[in-house]
Known about the structure:
Two copies of one chain form a homodimer. Chain A has eleven helices and eight strands. The two termini of chain A are 12 Å apart. The first copy, chain A, has an eight-stranded mixed sheet, sandwiched between helices. The first copy, chain A, is globular and about 50 Å long. With 254 residues, chain A is α/β, with parallel strands linked by helices. In chain A, strand 3 and strand 4 form a beta hairpin. At the A-B interface, helix 4, helix 7, helix 8 and helix 9 of A face helix 7, helix 8 and helix 9 of B. The structure holds adenosine-5'-triphosphate (2 copies) and magnesium ion (2 copies). The site of one magnesium ion has 4 residues of chain A, from helix 1.
Amino acid sequence: MGKVICIANQKGGVGKTTTAINLSACLAVAEKKVLLIDIDPQGNATTGFGINKDNKNIYNALIGEISIANVILSSGIDSLDIIPSNIDLIGAEIELVNYDSRESRLREILKEVKKRYEFIIIDCPPSLGLLTLNSLTAADSILIPLQCEYYALEGLSQLMNTIKLVKESLNSGLILEGILFTMFDSRTVLSSQVMQEVKGHFNGRVLNTVIPRNVRLSEAPSYGQPVIFYDCRSKGADAYIDLAKEIILNAKKG
Amino acid sequence: MGKVICIANQKGGVGKTTTAINLSACLAVAEKKVLLIDIDPQGNATTGFGINKDNKNIYNALIGEISIANVILSSGIDSLDIIPSNIDLIGAEIELVNYDSRESRLREILKEVKKRYEFIIIDCPPSLGLLTLNSLTAADSILIPLQCEYYALEGLSQLMNTIKLVKESLNSGLILEGILFTMFDSRTVLSSQVMQEVKGHFNGRVLNTVIPRNVRLSEAPSYGQPVIFYDCRSKGADAYIDLAKEIILNAKKG
Ligand SMILES: Nc1ncnc2c1ncn2[C@@H]1O[C@H](COP(=O)(O)OP(=O)(O)OP(=O)(O)O)[C@@H](O)[C@H]1O
Ligand SMILES: Nc1ncnc2c1ncn2[C@@H]1O[C@H](COP(=O)(O)OP(=O)(O)OP(=O)(O)O)[C@@H](O)[C@H]1O
Ligand SMILES: [Mg+2]
Ligand SMILES: [Mg+2]
């Protein structure tokens, strides 16, 4: 039965899409059946796999125009499917406002396909609006990418508060998968300071895997490929393989 | 009469806040009278100056609870005032929806104070929602920070399209101040590729100043200071001083 992991953080540019794409690909390479859902109107996870944005997508499924099964595309990688997104999704934020249970639309429509996959990964936009709330409501756990920078710290307590509210009112089963340090640069004092501070405050809720800053990770999307296929010997690929192993282990402990 | 410059890009983490803070500070150091408005619920520009988030802020002024003049704070730097923000601003996206001219609330309330300043700089959230639309409607020009990375390219044509729509329906005077390359890393091929591509497509609309990746820029916010006060000899400070000069020159040509 598919474990739904939501990749979210309202701070922009912290590595949500990079984590969603590369974790999904590494789970698929480990022969897990995976579905990646792009619920960000920017559609970066969609183009990160070289997929055309003109397809029917998560927007059409959310507003009930088409069933979710009909927007699932193959990624080109065995055992990894993708539900794309595009700019139409901006409309969903306004259109969903009038639905009764507007925060649980995604959870409702996912019921149809959830059992086909072992992992369902959702890439969220940089906000705590209705699209992210839908993902948190549909999720079993949330993985928080955290850039090792000062502003990233600032949003963390706000995000933890939102998780608590969602757990109380929309999804009592929601747990924290963990905080993932991204773009860690061992040469700067700032990176280590932020890491120490977070480990101090959120002890036990930080994932063991740390993603280093690695230019191969930012080059890969321009080739429409996850880093494990673009450069499997890079530090970026190694880190996301480790992350996939850690996520599989956590799921077993369940 | 104050020139209003909106710092916007829906892509997250591209240097909007860093540009808003450091451009404002460098304009103030050049003895221009400046107002910085933080219209992002994350409140990063507010904490980047070490300002407490518990003050009355742009949210209270937007919903008409208090006049805009009463939420202006001193930054601690001569000739630079700040209007802070905080998480309450998330409520404005929903509350403003019911106002008649919901996109022009900011333009309306700014009329009261606009003539006190030579420059008004607005830091936007990573989205094209109502808060960014309000800023584009109030602005004389938009400055687009662009990280030299692949995903940053993707959002550019969407943003240009939004600017065109705002110009047609809400603010016919809106012009492009320019595209500002940020976090430019001369060691990577990707940075130069993105720069070439953008210069090719948007010839003549790119600012001459380029902001290099510089760790002093990301350290400064943890001290609540703009980089020109944190480390005035850094490459980051030099770049933002150059930017301020270029913006002043553009305003004179006006
Ligand atoms: N570990 C890394 N090393 C180097 N570059 C990285 C790394 N992770 C992400 N990047 C690059 O940093 C930029 C921001 O990452 P990404 O787009 O994944 O963040 P995001 O949180 O999804 O952004 P948004 O908030 O806009 O959705 C991208 O250009 C990406 O290629
Ligand atoms: N030129 C630079 N060199 C090094 N670090 C930088 C530079 N510009 C910005 N940063 C750092 O990169 C991160 C992202 O920058 P910033 O927060 O200003 O972007 P933003 O576009 O305002 O993000 P958001 O979309 O969340 O509002 C911050 O931690 C900042 O300190
Ligand atoms: Mg993203
Ligand atoms: Mg910002």
